[in-house]
Amino acid sequence: MLNLPVLVFDIETIPDVRSGSRLYGLDLPDDDTVLAMNNIRRQESNSDFPRLPLHEIVCISGIWVEEGQIRLFSFCQESMSEQEIIKRFLSVFDKHFPTLVSWNGSAFDLPVLILRAMHYGLSAQGLLDQGDFNQARRYDNYQNRYQHRHTDLMDCLALFNARNFQRLDELALFLGFPGKQGHSGYHVHDYVKNQDWKVLCQYCESDVINTWLIYLRWQLLRGHLSLDEHQHWIKFTHDYIAEQLPGQHEFLSSWQHNAKLTPFNPRC
User: Fold this and answer.
1) Distance CA 3, CA 73 (A)
2) CB–CB of 169/179 below 8 Å?
3) How wide is the angle at C-alpha 70 spanned by C-alphas 151 and 245, nearest 5°?
4) Fewer C-beta within 10 Å: the chain N or C terminus?
């Protein structure tokens, strides 16, 4: 059985132009600042992927799952500031103690969330409590690698060996799921610049749904779900998308098509 409630999440980011300008002493238009930050970063690491503190969060999407209920949500800068997005997301952990599921969340999503929360002077007590406020969290918390309160699927499936890391999109397709819908994460900056908030949210949400489906397969592999229980959650997810998420019908069609091409094809 699943340890409910489950919260599967993903963040999307763009370079933090203001902080980058201050850190690197730049006085340029925003687009030129991004190019300069990319060039500086490539000199440091052979990659233009910004340092973790210099990721501005523009969207957080998640799936909240409990018995008899599944809900997909997104907080984005269309209607909220970055500070409000982070504060609202962190407030979940002050009220609830969900099983947290991510893809590369240990190395990216959670550290970025924590650093950006510090940037705004926010509290993440519920997320970071290791028994200081609630003794039950001493050995059951989101920082302890040797339990599954936070399951970083990329880490788990690689057996915590970086040489075995897989890309979410490729593994999702391998397992018969839709994979990413739309462009890669490199286009997030364009989505924000062009105010394509609907496209941005759907992109982030598709990553979350793929992660949730991989998590179900992982729990089946571990013996935490029987085949019947796995089938129940697959059908429950499929029906929710079909009935409640008209913006994800392309995702649903891709799922139905890809599932037929794999040896394990649960009824969806």
Assistant:
1) 20
2) yes
3) 115
4) N
pTM: 0.96
Give the C-alpha separation, 196 to 14, whole Å: 14
Q: Residue with structure tokens 């963040």? A: 11
Q: How far apart are CA 114 and CA 125, in angstroms?
A: 11
DSSP per-residue codes, 120-174: TT---HHHH-SSSS-GGGSSSSSS-TTSSSEEEHHHHHTTT-GGG---HHHHHHH
- Taking alpha carbons only, the member of 167, 200, 240 closest to residue 60 is 200
In the sheet that holds 6-15, the strands lie side by side as 69-76, 55-66, 6-15, 99-102, 150-152
Q: What is the pLDDT of residues 192-204, one digit of tens each?
A: 999 999 999 999 9
pLDDT one-digit tens code per residue, 67-78: 999 999 999 999
CATH of 6-140+149-259, one of 3.40.50.970, 3.30.565.10, 3.30.2350.10, 3.30.420.10: 3.30.420.10
